[in-house]
């Protein structure tokens, strides 16, 4: 594909890397013309503020778009001044910054870009996408990196050539998709044979009682702005109670769990304002998603066997399974 000269300069000026994108429906080439045009299936995909969009603007993840645009900076290491995302990425994946430099890394479901930032800093050639308008939060924060390619797309219909990435990263996403097995298996089509992956997912805990599961049937149907305003009012009030219960010897963490607020005090954030921000963000993140399907270790083992993945390790970190290995 050759990119025709675009009439308007500025944010939607064609970028050279757009020529590597493929039509997610028919895998045809795309041409920059009033957006990105697939001549084979006659579909035109819009470019919104410099970010090509391959999904309807209105989709099941609208709540995430709202959340990440409200909290564009909250979880970015460059904002918190702490290496929270960096440590999680390298601890979970066991990759090193050195091995990523110059490699093609695919990040699925990037949200506001806390991990995009860490990946870009390694000098990798990073391709990140999210189904929601969170991509605009990510673009505002990480658009400064020349090694970032950012699109709004779904894991189910990615606009990339298959087997074209060296590394695949997906954190905090697959439990929030409508068909988790299909999500998991689809992502691997884009990783080259021999490529490394790291995917995490909420762990299903049979006896796990959490008050959010009582609230979610109502809250997941609420308009994001209404739910957010409710959380913004209640979370800062519940947080001191949660912290007081948490400090009870032995039973503290279990008692604190009965209060429906995300308590991130274990992160040792710099000040109370930051702690309140993380708390509002994570409480909303518990309550708003349309889908939440935690997974069992047995299911994850089956899927990795079905895909014939190698060097697979499945580790439990707090309430999350981290799955890593080689395709
Ligand atoms: C809990 S957030 C995690 C974001 C980021 N990975 C992080 O850890 O900060 C889950 C993200 O998955 C995205 N998501 C959900 N379904 C998706 C899909 N089918 N394709 C791409 N992204 C999806 C949501 O829009 C949301 O931003």
UniProtKB/TrEMBL annotation:
Keywords: Methyltransferase, Transferase. One of its GO terms (molecular function) is methyltransferase activity. InterPro entries: Methyltransf_11 (IPR013216), SAM-dependent_MTases_sf (IPR029063), Trm112-like (IPR005651). Residues 106-198 form the Methyltransferase type domain. SUPFAM superfamilies: S-adenosyl-L-methionine-dependent methyltransferases, Trm112p-like. Transmembrane segments: none annotated. Pfam families: Methyltransf_11, Trm112p. GO terms for biological process: methylation. Gene3D superfamilies: 2.20.25.10, Vaccinia Virus protein VP39 (3.40.50.150). This is Methyltransferase domain-containing protein.
């Amino acid at each position: 594909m050759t990119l025709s000269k675009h009439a308007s300069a500025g944010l939607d000026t064609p970028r050279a890397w757009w020529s590597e994108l493929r039509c997610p429906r028919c895998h045809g080439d795309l041409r920059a013309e009033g957006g990105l045009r697939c001549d084979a299936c006659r579909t035109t995909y819009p470019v919104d503020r410099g970010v090509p969009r391959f999904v309807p603007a209105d989709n099941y993840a609208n709540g995430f778009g709202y959340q990440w645009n409200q909290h564009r900076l909250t979880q970015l290491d460059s904002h918190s001044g702490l290496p929270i995302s960096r440590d999680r990425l390298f601890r979970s994946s066991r990759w090193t910054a050195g091995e990523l430099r110059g490699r093609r890394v695919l990040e699925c479901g990037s949200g506001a870009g806390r991990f995009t930032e860490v990946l870009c800093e390694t000098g990798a050639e990073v391709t990140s996408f999210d189904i929601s308008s969170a991509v605009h939060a990510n673009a505002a924060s990480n658009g400064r990196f020349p090694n970032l390619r950012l699109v709004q797309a779904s894991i189910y219909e990615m606009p990339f050539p298959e087997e074209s990435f060296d590394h695949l990263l997906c954190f905090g996403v697959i439990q929030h998709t409508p068909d988790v097995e299909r999500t998991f298996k689809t992502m691997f089509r884009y990783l080259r044979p021999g490529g490394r992956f790291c995917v995490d997912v909420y762990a299903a805990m049979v006896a796990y009682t959490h008050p959010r599961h009582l609230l979610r049937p109502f809250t997941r149907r609420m308009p994001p702005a209404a739910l957010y305003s409710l959380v913004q009012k209640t979370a800062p009030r519940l947080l001191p109670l949660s912290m007081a219960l948490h400090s009870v010897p032995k039973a503290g963490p279990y008692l604190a769990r009965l209060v429906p607020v995300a308590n991130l005090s274990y992160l040792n954030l710099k000040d109370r304002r930051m702690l309140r921000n993380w708390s509002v963000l994570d409480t909303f993140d518990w309550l708003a998603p349309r889908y939440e399907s935690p997974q069992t270790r047995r299911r994850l083992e089956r899927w990795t066997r079905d895909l014939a993945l190698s060097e697979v390790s499945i580790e439990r970190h707090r309430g999350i399974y981290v799955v890593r290995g080689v395709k």
